[in-house]
């Protein structure tokens, strides 16, 4: 039997990966949910999944969390600026406990991207390579879920404001990425693989048109400069740093940072990925 560990298992992606593993017939007893706060994973424990405490920022907790684990899904942390040392601590623990393979959720074009988020992912990939542990990298594209929380606002105002210059994003559903991760975790032939995972590319004008088509409410895209977008976010209550990070997504989009060429996701899934229109319909439902 193979034991799989999922870090960040109470997060959106981690939970979905565990669901997909269970759907693929992996017994709960062969899945280890590594979480910062075990009490928040009671629902996972109820499915038979093994819940262990493990905190990226507390390296001493990690060896016990990864004991007797064969395959590890390292879900990238959420604390920007802290992620590289956190990820290194997980990799060190994996090496110390004899983990046989690491699958890491990274960023599109992580080794060449100019996004402000990229250096931590690039550094993590390099550290995993240097560890000698067999690996696969899942360079996950931008979630549809990054756009759809603003759906009601788009409908209320009739406008999507951004600084993308209407360049394409290879959007993807979080559930599709979770399914792809479960496939890579449970099947062979992925050693050393680097998968760029995204769906059909769409622009913000395409997003506006799709929302209009699904809802019947006219929505258009309005392009602004990055400084103008930061000012809008600050005016709406965000601090300068957070506003800048969010606007960096649009700046990166304008230079192609979120545009993924290829069919890696479709090949892993064995089907076409969820479409933008389907994601909008699901959000409305």
- Low-confidence stretches are none
Instruction: Assign the CATH architecture of the largest domain.
Output: 3-Layer(aba) Sandwich
CATH class membership of the largest domain: Alpha Beta
How do the strands line up in the largest sheet?
A: 3-2-1-4-5-6-8
Domains counted in the coordinates: how many?
Answer: 2
Q: Give me the strand/helix succession.
A: EHEHEHEHEHEHEHEHEHHHH
Category by helix and strand content: alpha/beta
The number of helical segments is: 12
How many strands, what sense, and barrel or not for the largest sheet? 7 strands, parallel
Number of strands: 9
Indicate the mean pLDDT: 95
The helix content, as a percent range, equals: 40-55%
- The shape is globular
Gap from first CA to last CA:
39 Å
Radius of gyration: 19 Å
Strand content: 5-15%
CATH-defined fold name of the largest domain: Rossmann fold
Assign the CATH superfamily of the largest domain.
Answer: NAD(P)-binding Rossmann-like Domain
